[in-house]
């Protein structure tokens, strides 16, 4: 129809050209068709019709934008490219549409495209009271590790909309990452006052109480989360955290019950992912999710099944970084270090900003004996600061023979997280070999006051140090205690390399 209209317009049959374009405009709401129709009507001196045509198109465009916004809120990932084009088209027609800038920024963020921050900034220039844009910008800053700027954006959102649950929830989660747990509790409590059924606020507040060693309050919040409707992943973390709290309280029966409940939940999660794949055999998240569930089981048969799920996801989409990283960890657990290194390398090529891929490759490189390559990768991963990553770099420095740098990394990790037992243990290890026994006595004692780590036998250093500094009574009592306890670690286990994230980290 458009081609016919162009031909008719060239032959100066404006009436027939407008008729063809009106038919095309009713079926295809394209800007080019409306612009061509408007030019043809202007050529025929029908100016009022041009004005009405512009008004009609703007109404259609507004409805178009809102339909895409609704689809995005429903989590339909496959429409993201079309939605991005739609918002760009709308902005060409109306450059002052703040919501279109905001939604286009979200599309770019989810598609991992650049210039999403420019869209958020432009939306705020047009409408400075759009508190949701401040929250989107806070989420972006938080994802990049710029927690202070993220909190400032949350402050602006709360100033504009004091009853925003998301704003308090975001700010509370950001303060957890900054380890300001008491301030995080205040924000999360405010979120709960606004919405008493917000399970994520209870969960994150429980994490704060657990870190503050207020175990009764943590148990109360974790129990509330299990009573409220929430995602299976959150419930699994709650059960594991609750088991750890019961272990701290020496309630071993409740610890066992919580771990058994988490195993049941893992079975339910496996069934849910299997059902999702039955309904949609091309759903990558279901393959990756079920693979992670199998990895959590921990036995050989489940590990092989996880490998099959990760490979199935990569068969459908070779650029799926989460499946690639999951497969790499799977190979590492099975002892295939070169295969794991190859998968981590591909994940880095897919997403050069993936610090998880860099960290995993650093661990594998160290296991393969290439300490220098491991050091380079862990430095790339440390662009997102973390006490765990600093401890890993300290271990790498120690393997390279740079003990002063290793000690600095352990001390910085301790300053970031004063309850991080692994950093204390590795620092005590260095002090012991340097014959600084007084320092070992302090460092070797500290991990006992924190949550226990499997296989971490600090008495190996603490007992000889007490003997060498002539504290014979306490050394003898400690030797008696350890002789009836678990066996000490082997020399190869002296320096520990942490690879897995803790379940006691709150997420928003």
TrEMBL record:
The keyword GTP-binding does not apply. The keyword Iron-sulfur does not apply. It holds the Pfam family TPR_8. SUPFAM superfamilies: TPR-like (SSF48452). The chain crosses the membrane at residues 50-70. TPR repeats lie at residues 131-164, 199-232, 387-420. Keywords: Membrane, Repeat, TPR repeat, Transmembrane, Transmembrane helix. PANTHER family: TETRATRICOPEPTIDE REPEAT PROTEIN 6 (PTHR44858), UDP-N-ACETYLGLUCOSAMINE--PEPTIDE N-ACETYLGLUCOSAMINYLTRANSFERASE SPINDLY-RELATED (PTHR44858:SF1). This is Tetratricopeptide repeat domain 6.
């Amino acid at each position: 129809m458009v081609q016919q209209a162009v031909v008719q317009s060239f032959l100066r049959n404006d009436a027939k050209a407008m008729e063809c374009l009106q038919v095309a405009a009713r079926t295809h709401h394209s800007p080019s068709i409306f612009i061509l129709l408007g030019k043809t009507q202007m050529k025929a001196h029908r100016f009022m019709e041009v004005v009405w045509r512009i008004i009609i198109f703007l109404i259609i465009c507004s409805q178009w934008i809102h339909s895409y916004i609704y689809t995005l809120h429903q989590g339909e990932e496959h429409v993201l490219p079309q939605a991005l084009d739609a918002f760009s088209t709308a902005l060409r027609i109306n450059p002052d549409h703040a919501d279109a800038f905001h939604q286009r920024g979200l599309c770019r963020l989810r598609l991992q495209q650049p210039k999403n921050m420019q869209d958020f900034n432009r939306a705020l220039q047009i409408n400075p009271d759009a508190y949701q844009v401040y929250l989107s910008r806070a989420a972006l800053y938080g994802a990049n590790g710029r927690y202070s700027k993220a909190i400032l954006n949350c402050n602006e959102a709360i100033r504009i909309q004091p009853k925003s649950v998301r704003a308090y929830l975001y700010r509370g989660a950001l303060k957890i990452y900054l380890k300001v747990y008491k301030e995080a509790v205040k924000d999360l409590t405010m979120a709960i006052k606004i919405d008493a059924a917000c399970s994520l606020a209870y969960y994150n507040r429980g994490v704060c109480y657990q870190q503050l060693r207020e175990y009764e309050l943590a148990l109360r919040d974790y129990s509330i989360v299990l009573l409220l409707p929430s995602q299976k992943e959150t419930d699994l973390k709650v059960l594991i955290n609750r088991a750890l709290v019961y272990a701290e309280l020496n309630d071993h029966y409740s610890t066992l019950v919580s771990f058994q409940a988490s195993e049941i939940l893992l079975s339910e999660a496996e069934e849910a992912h299997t059902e999702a794949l039955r309904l949609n055999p091309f759903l990558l998240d279901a393959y990756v999710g079920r693979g992670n569930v199998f990895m959590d089981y921990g036995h050989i048969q489940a590990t092989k099944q996880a490998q099959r799920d990760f490979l199935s996801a990569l068969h459908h989409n070779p650029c799926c970084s989460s499946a690639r990283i999951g497969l790499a960890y799977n190979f590492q657990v099975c002892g295939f270090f070169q295969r794991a290194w190859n998968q981590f390398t591909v994940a880095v090529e897919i997403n050069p900003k993936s610090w998880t891929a860099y960290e995993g490759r650093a661990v594998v490189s160290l296991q393969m004996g290439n300490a220098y390559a491991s050091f380079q990768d862990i430095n790339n991963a440390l662009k997102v600061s973390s006490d765990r990553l600093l401890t890993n770099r300290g271990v790498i420095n120690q393997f390279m023979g740079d003990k002063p740098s290793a000690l600095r990394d352990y001390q910085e990790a301790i300053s970031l997280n004063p309850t991080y037992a692994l950093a204390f243990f590795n620092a005590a290890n260095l002090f012991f070999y340097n014959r600084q026994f007084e320092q070992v006595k302090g460092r070797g004692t500290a991990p006992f006051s924190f949550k226990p780590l499997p296989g971490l036998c600090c008495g190996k250093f603490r007992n000889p140090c007490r003997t060498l500094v002539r504290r014979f009574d306490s050394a003898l009592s400690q030797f008696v205690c350890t002789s009836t306890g678990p066996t000490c670690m082997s020399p190869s286990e002296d320096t520990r390399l942490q690879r897995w994230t803790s379940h006691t980290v709150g997420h928003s």
